[in-house]
């Protein structure tokens, strides 16, 4: 983890989408890349990392980890609207849209009543406006 990112995490992670994503992304690096050498200290042979296929990239892997960690597939499949995903999982619009796209969930799906009730309760507790229908 880069020192500036590490130092700013307590400030940036105030339950906002981007801060939560950054924390989950960096956690992904810690979990998935325990033996990795920080890029600023890596040998020059690692300078060709941009030539790797996406799935072999440490950044791609950390992003995939963050998406799965913050928006588990088993839960996200129950949602119908991006705004509901954003609210329920406290993620940014782009994170929610990318997760839905990457899971191939762009088609409309019914939302189970228990999920709708949980979202409604969350809106009531946090005072956030309910998404327009």
TrEMBL record:
It comes from the Bacteria. Residues 16-100 form the IrrE N-terminal-like domain. InterPro entries: IrrE_HExxH, Rad_response_metalloprotease. This is ImmA/IrrE family metallo-endopeptidase. It comes from Mesorhizobium argentiipisi. The lineage of its organism: Bacteria, Pseudomonadati, Pseudomonadota, Alphaproteobacteria, Hyphomicrobiales.
């Amino acid at each position: 983890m880069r020192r500036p990112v590490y130092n700013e995490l307590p400030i940036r992670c105030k339950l906002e989408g981007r801060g939560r994503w950054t924390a989950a992304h960096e956690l992904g690096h810690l979990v998935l890349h325990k033996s990795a050498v920080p890029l600023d200290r890596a040998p020059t042979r690692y300078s060709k990392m941009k030539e790797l296929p996406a799935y072999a990239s440490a950044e791609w892997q950390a992003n995939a980890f963050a998406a799965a960690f913050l928006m588990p597939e088993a839960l996200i499949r129950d949602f119908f609207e991006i705004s509901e995903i954003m609210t329920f999982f406290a993620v940014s619009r782009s994170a929610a849209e990318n997760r839905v796209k990457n899971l191939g969930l762009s088609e409309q799906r019914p939302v189970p009543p228990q999920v709708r009730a949980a979202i409604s309760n969350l809106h009531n507790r946090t005072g956030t406006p309910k998404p327009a229908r």
